């Protein structure tokens, strides 16, 4: 991760191109990619070994300019809607930490939320 001030200076010199913020559906797909690459965890936004929970991955993507705060919140709403469709009536962050969850299940839920956002034009 390159700090924002350094990225901005590099962009001014033509050495860096800032990422474009993504729509909620693409952001959710990118969350899956981050969790696949760095690893998924529970109970921590960022684990000592570099793994991330869903919220940690979203924070990482927002801090690097890959999603705006508004589109991140929309993505969270799609995730909450998908959880409700699955009969889960708890906050996403609490659900992420349930002992019965696996990465495959988390990935499927995020993917379904991304599909829902895409069908809604987001």
Can you give a write-up of this model?
The protein has 122 residues and is mostly helical. 60% of the residues lie in helices and 0% in strands. It has six helices and no strands. The protein has helices at 4-12, 24-38, 54-63, 69-85, 92-96, 103-119. α2 (24-38) crosses α3 (54-63), α2 (24-38) crosses α4 and α4 (69-85) crosses α6 (103-119). It is globular and about 50 Å long. The two termini are 27 Å apart. The mean pLDDT is 90.
Layout of helices and strands:
Layout: H1 4-12, H2 24-38, H3 54-63, H4 69-85, H5 92-96, H6 103-119
Helix pairs in contact: 2-3, 2-4, 2-6, 4-6
Compact description:
The protein is built from 6 helices and no strands. α2 packs antiparallel against α6. The model has no long low-confidence stretch (mean pLDDT 90).
């Amino acid at each position: 991760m390159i700090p924002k001030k350094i990225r901005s200076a590099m962009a001014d010199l033509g050495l860096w191109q800032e990422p474009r913020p993504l729509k909620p559906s693409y952001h959710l797909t990118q969350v899956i990619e981050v969790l696949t690459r760095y690893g998924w965890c529970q109970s921590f936004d960022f684990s000592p070994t570099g793994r991330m929970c869903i919220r940690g991955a979203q924070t990482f993507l927002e801090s690097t300019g890959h999603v705006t705060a508004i589109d991140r919140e929309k993505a969270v709403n799609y995730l909450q809607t998908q959880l409700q469709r699955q009969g889960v009536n708890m906050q996403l962050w609490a659900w992420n930490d349930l002992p019965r969850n696996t990465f495959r299940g988390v990935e499927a839920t995020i993917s379904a939320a991304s599909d829902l956002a895409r069908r809604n034009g987001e």
